[in-house]
Design goal:
With about 325 residues, the protein is an alpha/beta fold.
Length: about 325
C-alpha cells in the first residue's frame, strides 16, 4: 500500500468508480473469489468499498455468508446472477443461494442459468415460480439445458412458460437473449416478440428443424434492431411457397452452424444485410453428400452471399474455406 501510493498519494486517495460501465458475464469458480478475500484492510479503503454498491453486484453463490453480505451491500443496485447447476448432489449451497438471489429479480440486470437435464424438476419447482415476478431492469437473459453425462436424454416434454408465467406478464427490456437445449419451445414463445432485442442466440432447438423456416423468419421480422444472430442446429430445412424474405438492415454479425441445406435456405431468406457484417457459416453434411455436391452448393449459394460482406468464414466438416470480400 505504501509503495503503491508513495509517488503520488493525492491521486490514489481519490477514487472514482464508473457505475455505468457494463458488467461482464462471469463464470462461477472458487478461484474467482480469492481476489475479494482480503485481510487487514484499512478503514479508509473499507469505507470506500462499502459506499460503492457496484462492487457487490455479482453475488457469490458458492458461499452463503458472502451471498447475503453482497446482496445487502449492493442495496438496490442492478445485479448479475450467473449459475451453472449440473449436479444436485453436492451443490446444496449453490441452489439455496441462487434461490435467495433470484428473489431480487426486480433488480437483476443480467441472468445466466445453465441446468443439467436431470435438474429440470428443480427448475420447474423452484426457479420458474420466481421468474413470474416483474424484472424491469433485465437486459440480458441466457437459459440453457445441457447433458450431465453423455447417456442423459432431455425430458420428453417441458412446461414451457407462457407470457402470463413470465415476469408478471410484463416483458422486460431485453437486449441479449440466448436459449439453448430447450425442447418443445414454440416460435410463439413470448420473449421472441421483444422488439428491443439486439443480440439473439438460439442453439440446439432440434424440434425446430422439423418446422417451416417461415416461423423463424417471423421471429426475426419482429426484431427490427437485431445486430447479432447466432443459430446452431435450429434452422428448418423446408420453406413454404408463401414465406417472404426478412430484412436485417442492422445486422453486424451472423453465425450459422447447421446442415448445409438449412444454412443455404436461411441465407436465401434474408435481405438487406449490411456490407460491414461479419459472417461465419459452419455447414455440416451427411455421408451421402459427396464432396463435389458440397462444393457446388457452397459456390452457388453461400459464396455469393458472403462476397457482399466485409468478412466471411465458411466451414464444412471435411474442408475449410476462408473468404474475404
Amino acid at each position: 500500500y505504501r509503495k503503491f501510493t508513495s509517488p503520488r498519494p493525492a491521486q490514489y486517495h481519490s477514487v472514482h468508480l464508473v457505475e455505468s460501465r457494463p458488467v461482464p458475464l462471469l463464470k462461477l469458480h472458487k478461484a474467482s473469489w480469492q481476489a475479494v478475500t482480503l485481510t487487514q484492510v484499512c478503514r479508509y479503503w473499507r469505507t470506500i468499498a462499502g459506499q460503492h454498491t457496484i462492487l457487490w453486484t455479482i453475488p457469490n453463490l458458492i458461499s452463503t455468508r458472502w451471498c447475503w453480505q453482497m446482496l445487502n451491500r449492493s442495496k438496490e443496485a442492478p445485479l448479475v446472477l450467473s449459475a451453472e447447476i449440473y449436479e444436485l448432489g453436492g451443490q446444496g449451497s449453490l441452489l439455496k443461494n441462487f434461490y435467495i438471489s433470484l428473489k431480487h429479480l426486480h433488480r437483476v440486470k443480467i441472468l445466466v442459468l445453465s441446468l443439467g437435464y436431470r435438474n429440470y424438476t428443480y427448475f420447474e419447482t423452484f426457479v420458474l415460480p420466481l421468474l413470474a415476478r416483474p424484472a424491469p431492469l433485465l437486459t440480458s437473459l441466457s437459459w440453457s439445458f445441457v447433458r450431465n453425462h453423455r447417456s442423459d436424454n432431455p425430458p420428453d416434454s417441458y412446461h414451457i412458460p407462457t407470457q402470463a408465467d413470465l415476469f408478471g406478464g410484463s416483458l422486460p427490456p431485453l437486449k441479449h437473449l440466448r436459449i439453448s437445449g430447450v425442447r418443445s419451445l414454440l416460435p410463439s414463445f413470448p420473449l421472441f416478440s421483444i422488439p428491443t432485442i439486439t443480440h439473439l442466440s438460439l442453439q440446439r432447438l432440434r424440434d425446430w428443424r422439423e418446422r417451416d423456416i417461415s416461423e423463424l423468419l417471423e421471429i426475426l421480422r419482429h426484431l427490427p434492431h437485431l445486430q447479432t444472430l447466432d443459430l446452431m442446429r435450429v434452422i428448418p430445412a423446408s420453406r413454404s411457397a408463401s414465406s417472404e424474405p426478412v430484412s436485417l438492415p442492422h445486422l453486424r454479425k451472423l453465425i450459422l452452424s447447421d446442415d448445409i441445406h438449412g444454412c443455404t435456405l436461411f441465407l436465401r431468406s434474408i435481405t438487406d444485410v449490411p456490407a460491414s457484417a461479419h459472417v461465419s457459416v459452419s455447414a455440416s453434411t451427411n455421408e451421402e453428400t459427396g464432396q463435389d455436391n458440397r462444393v457446388d452448393t457452397i459456390i452457388r449459394h453461400i459464396v455469393p452471399f458472403c462476397f457482399n460482406t466485409v468478412e466471411a468464414r465458411i466451414f464444412t466438416m471435411r474442408m475449410s474455406h476462408f473468404v474475404t470480400a
